[in-house]
């Protein structure tokens, strides 16, 4: 697993994808931070993290689109399948490389808020909760991206498919918000929505149910990716 992780991490920076992601992510995060805090003279973090969540849904597939699709395109997939390593360990190594890059960017950009300490009262508990939420959701997005990448050898198709699934999760929350608050179906949509559950962290609540939800959704897509390669190994 460690060898795959190192190989994948190195691949991001021997090419251009890793650098492109870092530049775009850090630049947009800086712009959004300036817009939501400095320009508005506010220490409220909810708007910044809401916008960053939407942005992450669009840009994170840049890191996952090549994870498995490139192996199929370059005809190196069989080398991965016949490597002396379990499929879960192989998939986790593939997962860990983009996640480390994303997590590093998320933590780094969250330090921007420390600039506000001399001028406003910063709620560190809320900041920590929102960082944790972003890390959890990022893990879900990466798990989705790996699954879609395992289905195709076309990187663009993998990126578009990943964004489509993520937007579907957003759409569930949007549909739920349009339903009457006392309608039972709204409860179902809210329970399945990534965005609706993120709102609990924005409001300063560390929700254990949401934590388990994100872990569960990520685990489902992680398992689906393993099943794809399990069928290819023995199919």
Detailed description of the structure:
The protein is 77% helix and 0% strand. The protein has 235 residues and is mainly α. It has one domain. The radius of gyration is 19 Å and the shape is globular. The two termini are 23 Å apart. The mean pLDDT is 85.
What's the topology here?
Blueprint lengths: L1 H13 L2 H22 L7 H14 L1 H4 L4 H5 L3 H5 L5 H24 L13 H26 L5 H24 L5 H9 L1 H9 L5 H27 L1
Helix pairs in contact: 1-7, 2-3, 3-8, 3-11, 7-8, 7-12, 8-9, 8-11, 8-12, 9-10
Question: What are its keywords?
Answer:
single chain; 235 residues; mainly alpha; 12 helices; 0% strand; globular
Brief sketch in words of this structure:
The protein is mostly helical. Helix content is 77%, strand content 0%.
What's the gyration radius in Å? 19 Å
Cα(first) to Cα(last) distance is 23 Å
- Give the biggest sheet: none
The ordered H/E elements are HHHHHHHHHHHH
